[in-house]
Design brief:
This protein is an alpha+beta fold and about 525 residues long. The protein has 3 domains: about 30-145, no CATH class; about 175-290, no CATH class; about 300-465, no CATH class. The protein has helices spanning about 35-45, 75-90, 100-105, 120-125, 175-185, 215-225, 235-245, 260-270, 305-335, 340-350, 360-380, 380-400, 405-420, 425-445, 450-465; strands spanning about 55-60, 65-70, 115, 130-135, 140-145, 190-195, 205-210, 255-260, 275, 285, 465, 470. The strands form 3 sheets. It has a 5-stranded antiparallel beta sheet, with helices on both faces. The protein has a 5-stranded antiparallel beta sheet with strand order 6-7-9-10-8, with helices on both faces. The chain has a two-stranded antiparallel sheet with strand order 11-12. The protein is elongated and about 105 Å long.
Amino acid sequence: MKKYDDFELSSENKPEYDAREEKEYTRDYVFDSYEKNIAYINKRYNVSVNNDVVVRKIKLKNDIQAFIVFFDGMSNSESINNNVIKSLIELPFVENEVIVSDIYEKFTTHCQASVQNDFDKICDEINFGSCALFVDGISDAFIFDVRSWEHRSINKPENEQSIYGPQEAFGEMLRTNTALVRKIIKNEKLIAEGVTVGNSSKTRGVLLYINDIANDKLVHEVKRRLDGISTEYIISIEQIQMLIEDRKMLLTPQILATERPDRAARALSEGRCVLIMNGSPRALIMPSNAFELTHTAADEYLNVPFSLMSRLIRIIGMFLSLLLPALYLAITLYNNEIIPTYLLYSISAARENVPFPSVVELLLMNISFELIREAGIRMPSPIGSSLGIVGGLILGQAAVSAKIVSPLMIIVIAITGIGSFATADYTLGWTYRVLRLVFIGLAAVLGLYGIAIGIVLYSLYLGSVTTFGMPFLAPDMSFNDNNMSSTIKTAKIWSMERRPHFLKTKNDKNEDNISRRWLSKNKYRG
């Protein structure tokens, strides 16, 4: 039996062919004729129709013709004027037989320039904001990286807020995001390997990993899945997440998405892979497990007792969000004997004039709460917060006054909602919202036995799931190892001597056995 650390999948999952090899245009190369090149560009980009495609003709010394092509709004016009057009027009002389090396090495003043003769690759660069220069008599084009489109500045994280730690979040710019990670991990072993996904959109991204830590089989498996994606358009990284997950219909997210560069850097230092795509303000961390979905960025910056208390409170809130309505329903319908007598009298008196069964009452309030949540998200910010508070108070009070629901049901739904807001991962919150309805149905039919059966079956199903060759419920729950924390427990920073053993990294040492050497009897002298 193969161990899960091999990061290998069965051959039947490998694609028979890669549809991205199919091109809309034939593989053409740059002509050495000015007229042919400009005619090809005009036809391919529909210059007569496209308003933002700029084709600028330039005449060099000795009447040698040239032209540049770029997208207005995606390229820096000032850089093109000063570093491309101006330098070409002010050439002291140009021989009739223009040499590529002369233009590339002597006359171009832009720092990022390259030579390319494949029209497909040239057009890919133009579509990504670069500028291409074609010169008559040369069967090559010069590519200048002059990208400069409007984007958001670096803001605070919105969904992963933390009082402690860095207060920077990923944006939509690819290079800005990679720079945020490199600012934290100042190591030349950090590899940013370029990837492109989408046959038509050709969305660019980078796969980050630390070369001397990450398992080679894990890196290969991630790249294999990315190369095996065949779809026309990729708009966001969430679409990629759905395309590379192991189980398509599993409710629990199998890949951790984060908007914090510090959390991505932490994952890289453990030996994981991080995917960043242009246009997406989140990064994907692979592989991940079920326990890490309960972690927050603040856990890394708090002392162990505080971090453990915070994590336990979140876990309790998550279980309340998932099981409290079902438990209330099962106890009131089937298992009245476990309720204290006076509490049972109170519940019966409160429900005396309620016309609906407990199941209908629970579903009615649960749907009402979900409606308030969805409306609050989609309303403008100043109105959304007021809608959630005022709407919940008015709706709950009116429902109780009209004797549609009991007061205890309002309390159950309120605690359930608060517990759902304590969920660390937003996608995991969606999981609990769906599973809550499943457990309500089981409780309505079988009571506590139905809840127990549902928990056992879903736990067994999660136990059979692997993500990138790693069991989704890894690691084990041992409390006596010195690995970096990836479970419910929180590890002391001075005892995190090894990286997670289930990642099978090249170098599992994270810190020395004695990290606080200033406490050692033999003083550390560097």
